[in-house]
Design goal:
Layout (H helix, E strand, L loop, with lengths): L4 E3 L6 E3 L17 H8 L18 H13 L129 H5 L17
Antiparallel strand pairs: 1-2
Length: 223
Amino acid sequence: MVTDTRECPFCAEPIKAAAKKCRHCGEWLDGYTRESILGYVLPGDASGTIAAPPSFPDDPQARRDAQYDIVVSWDKVQSFRGFDLAGRNLSKLILMSADLSDADLNNADLRVSNLAFSIMTGADLRKVDLRGATLTSVNLSNADLQGADLRFANLENAVLIGANLRDARLSGVRLDNADLTDANLTNAELNSAWLSGATLTEEQLDTVKSLSDTRMPDGTKHA
């Protein structure tokens, strides 16, 4: 009978036959190392990338799947810089202080996720679903959030310098003390939002689609 498990050579506990690391003792298996695995799944740069281990198919979809697996089982250390997570279901994940700078999250589902204190500079967040997400003190400078759904998300103290929020849905969002310097708010929906202490100009607010019942930066409530 063919089995899909084997015994870990370090701790003798049963593990999956295709495992690269023992889930019991934490040892890497069959000559694999953290560097070789992450060298495969991390996006390359001008210096090149480490070759993929033989059992890993070296194709874009496999790379995407490997990156997704790392995110959903995050060790609180690994950077997700430049990861391709477009269209992925990441709802309810706890990714506090994660590095998602320059990541592709286009059309991803991040509902009710916790991204507090994360770095998301330059990330592609077009049409991302961030309803009810916690984004306190997140850095979204120069991120593309066009058409994103951020209803009832918490972005208190967030940095959105130069971010593109065109056509974004921001009703009920908390943007208290957020820095929106040079952010594009054209046609954004900001009904019943909180902007108390936020940094933005009257010119930016003039481009917004709707502001009914929104708490303005000076603390007054928009009619």
